[in-house]
Amino acid sequence: MHNQSHSSVAWRLIKTVFSFYPVAMPIMVVCIVFNAIIGSIPSIFMQNVIAIIEQNWEHGSWSSVSGEIMSLVSILIALYVLALISSIIFNQMMAVVSQGALRKFRIKMFDKMEKLPISYFDRNPHGDIMSYYTNDVDTLRQIISQSFPQLLISSLTVITIFGIMLYFSFWMTAVVAVGIVVMLYVTRKIAGGSAKFFLRQQNALAKEEGFVEEMMNGQKVIKVFTHEKQSKQAFDEINEQLFSDSRQANKYANTLAPIIMNIGNVLYVVVAIFGGIFIVSDVQNISFSGLALSVSVVIPFLNMTRQFSGNINQVSQQVNAVVMGLAGARRVFELLDQEEEKDEGYVTLVNAKEVDGKLVPCKERTGIWAWQHPHKSDGSVTYKKVEGDVRLIDVDFAYVPGKTILHDISLYAEPGQKVAFVGSTGAGKTTITNLLNRFYDIQKGKIRYDGININKIKKADLRRSIGIVLQDTNLFTDTVLENIRYGKLDATDEECMIAARLAGADDFISRLPDGYNTMLTGDGANLSQGQRQLISIARAAVADPPVMILDEATSSIDTRTEETVQRGMDALMLGRTVFVIAHRLSTIKNADVIMVMEHGRIIERGSHEELLKEKGTYYQLYTGAFELE
Amino acid sequence: MIKTLAKSIREYKKDSIKTPIYVSLEVIIECFIPFLIASLVNDIKAGTSISHLVYQGIFLVILAGISLTLGTLSGYACASASCGFAKNLRKDMYYNIQNFSFANIDRFSTSSLVTRLTTDVTNVQMAYMMIIRTAVRGPIMIVFAFVMAYIMGGKMAFVYLFTAPVLGLGLFFVMRKTIPIFKRVFKKYDNLNSSIQENVKGIRVVKAFVREDYEMSKFENAATSVTADFTKAERILAWNSPIMQFCIYFMMIFVLTVGSYTVITSRGMDLDVGQMSALLTYSMMILNSLMMLSMVFVMITMADESSHRIVEVLNEKTTIDENVDGIKDVQDGSIDFVDVNFAYSSHAKKMALSDVNLHIDSGQTVGIVGGTGSSKTTLVQLIARLYDVTSGSVKVAGIDVKEYNLDALRDQVSMVLQKNVLFSGTIKDNLRWGNENATDEEMQEACKLAQADEFISRFPEGYNTYIEQGGTNVSGGQKQRLCIARALLKKPKILILDDSTSAVDTKTDALIRQGFEKFIPDTTKIIIAQRIASVEDSDLIIVMDKGKVHATGTHEQLLANNELYQEIYYSQNKKGEVLDA
């Protein structure tokens, strides 16, 4: 990821929001401009009114000036009404746009995330991915809805006021300008320090969060080892660091406003005194208006000075939000710039029926699936029945270039066969299954599915034809029934229940408080690991795929329950090509062929009986003379 | 609730009191400045001498300097007070959690505790900062600005009595409408994030079932619903700014018309030009204060929910009395269960354990078997007093466990939990949990006994190998053996292994048990296992079923006459396939 500068991130953010709302954004900008300018011009009216008073206050006759003053005030009222209308429009639109932009960002990020390859999720800690949604997007809210508009308003106001100042008097403007430069310098200094410590505070907070998470997870271990005292000490250290960083950050932030405001006050006094000096000493005024220096010029000047410093104060209050918002935006764009999973497959999965001994594609579900294979060379389309014949030929694979995990893997699984893998952790068993459904792509060799190179098959269709049950079950917040239906979205309730019965899950599900309609939350936290595995087996069963991968699918089911599930599992595996990975040898004994893997190679292969006769590694494993890790 | 929270202010009480004092003084001076400037302006108009102007100017600059000093002091005190308060809140929560019993821990999920310690505390910290600073500043500013305006402008100051309520009422209605929406939407928002988390964790399932589009549309709906609520709230909030602008505009026009009328008709007696502009300044001060106060209310509402969640943790009382003055000496490792009944909560319909009567001699090896949910774990947890019995009693060395000092008891009853955790740190760091002062030799000895020494010494950095958070860089079997070694280092009188060798192969498993017999013969060893092979040669085997002791006896006795035991045994050792190791 190339490192983007602050300004390029800011530009991209603005451009993205504009592209979300191509009509609303320009309207809003117009409203802001209008509002900012109107906000600055009352000083002109004030000058006029005061000038009138100046000339007339001594004779005390209201009627002689009321006409003049009232017409000025009416124009002002008209302008104010317009400003109010534009302000209402702007604020209402901003509410819609800022929230809408966040929504679009979230959806964009989520869509992107779903399209990223598995390797992305394997590489990045899940906490980091979550943080895009929980922390980074939220920082965008303030920068979009407040910081950017505020910056725009303030800079416009400052420019307008500066123009009006010049209209009144060059000399006075010069005095204000010197003050502003001082103010900007101080703001830069303090706000810079403040931003630095705010980022530090964020880091300290993240550190404390990580620590607390680890400790809360192991709280029972802490209790068992009466380790409370040490745990408190370690916490205090981290907590103290967070305290000192956040105190520092807040000290800066808290003092910024009084400092700016009081520089404003001093500037106010200085302007007043210089005004007085200029008037008293009768300095020749230079201005666009050609007005002579008088109280009626100095008073609006004083108000403009206040407005000036007020705006700088407003901007300085946004500095932290901008720094954090841009850091958040940078991370969000980093996610959005990730490369998506590529799919160049063109062979698709279709429903088919046999007409006159030939396969013909059709819309309805027939139970027969076919590979629709368009041939680029002659434009013809052939159909091939999906049977579940899987072959790996001389496959090499590495997650990280140079660190080959699998060497020369060749294996054939005929339709309906059960192929088992045994071997230590890291031997490459799960890696093989990762290659079959193309979570990762092989570097060398071939994988053929019903004789077709799997790279030619559309990934979605390839995966649809391979059911998978993993050791770490992942269930979703929904009812048990919907979790099973996840395997096949258009499955009827009946079909789901049949699948549950097949998986041996029906028994415990019917004992849950609401049976199949029991809500599962927090990844099925209210179920035991074994029960969750049964549900995920049912989920795969309802999908009814020709090929199945069971990766430690029954590891948490106790042996006695496994016995009872076994019949269902056998029924589930019947007529499918099945790849089984299991630690427990009893689970794989009846496989057609067992592959014993070590360091990414297949070192033994054969049926249970054959391997026992061989008296090799498998024999040792089975008799307990060798250990799996 | 506030009382409970306030207890955590402690050493930051001084700063918490200083802040509003500084703020009040700062506000008073701030209110004086426009007043003085008004007279300065009038002096300019009257054409006073420059030296007089400069004197006045210097006086004003000094005032600004004092105001700045007070502002800085209040800013510093406020940062200390609020950050310190937050620090103490986190500390008090964390310390109280350390006192939680297992029953307490079961009530809170890890993620909810993490949120309470981080996000919730941050919310309260922000609210506290606003309360001691902005909430003090606002009302004082309003009162003083009004008083000053009255002194200068007389009746004209009463214009504030019109505009301030308009703004106040407007803000009040906005708040009343938005607060309930915010409360509702934050819950929805949490759900949205937890559904993202499910997707991140379950991405393999999503991709394997080709459910990317399905998940996307599900997410889009959820996100849209959250946005709809947020937008609704924000659109109401968006009225704040126009209402404020309306009041400012009204005030400007009022001062310009009525002000100039007053100046002219009274020939500058009731009001002069300088005062007129000061009036405008005061009006801005008052309106700004109202605006700030409304922000304080928003912050307090947001912090309200968080405070409740924090107080829940602070007020959680441990369910187990530590019995600090209890017996500190555990004589031996004998265990008795006398008419023990146990339920996890007082309103549970079913007892997790009922009518348990057992006697275990010191130094015996005891195996416990039984199906999932037969309360094997529950049974052994009572020995280390991780939970208290509902009725009956559990005795260690003939004395009720409640009579012991809790720490002393747990030091002698070492338990290897089923769901075990290693912490980030070196292997040595982890082992030292068992005994802080363990020497390298002692550690190696324990690891040898747990059959861990062999693989540890194969690591390039041996005992200094860094274990990642959650022990992700060691295999399941290795992790289990490290956990056993850690428990052994305590040199306990009773050692409990709760399914702690499930990922260890049968041979190593046997070696561990043999080592126990040989090197720690006087320690009572209780082993819960799935595999019959792991308990076969125990002195006593307890078969648990549905929360009851189904049978006890030796392997031979049980195999001869207990049906359940036979069933378990044959499910693992099919006839004709039993191989001798």
From TrEMBL, chain A:
Residues 390-624 form the ABC transporter domain. Keywords: ATP-binding, Membrane, Nucleotide-binding, Transmembrane, Transmembrane helix, Transport. The chain crosses the membrane at residues 20-38, 69-90, 151-168, 174-191, 256-280. Gene3D superfamilies: ABC transporter type 1, transmembrane domain (1.20.1560.10), P-loop containing nucleotide triphosphate hydrolases (3.40.50.300). It comes from the Bacteria. SUPFAM superfamilies: ABC transporter transmembrane region, P-loop containing nucleoside triphosphate hydrolases. The keyword Membrane applies. GO terms for molecular function: ABC-type transporter activity; ATP binding; ATP hydrolysis activity. It is found in: Cell membrane. PROSITE patterns: ABC_TM1F, ABC_TRANSPORTER_1, ABC_TRANSPORTER_2. Residues 27-324 form the ABC transmembrane type-1 domain. GO terms for cellular component: plasma membrane. It is a multi-pass membrane protein. The keyword Protease does not apply. This is ATP-binding cassette subfamily B protein. It comes from Breznakia blatticola.
TrEMBL record, chain B:
The keyword Plastid does not apply. It is found in: Cell membrane. SUPFAM superfamilies: ABC transporter transmembrane region (SSF90123), P-loop containing nucleoside triphosphate hydrolases (SSF52540). The chain crosses the membrane at residues 21-41, 53-86, 134-151, 157-175, 246-264, 276-300. Its main location: membrane. Residues 32-302 form the ABC transmembrane type-1 domain. PROSITE patterns: ABC_TM1F (PS50929), ABC_TRANSPORTER_1 (PS00211), ABC_TRANSPORTER_2 (PS50893). This is ATP-binding cassette subfamily B protein.
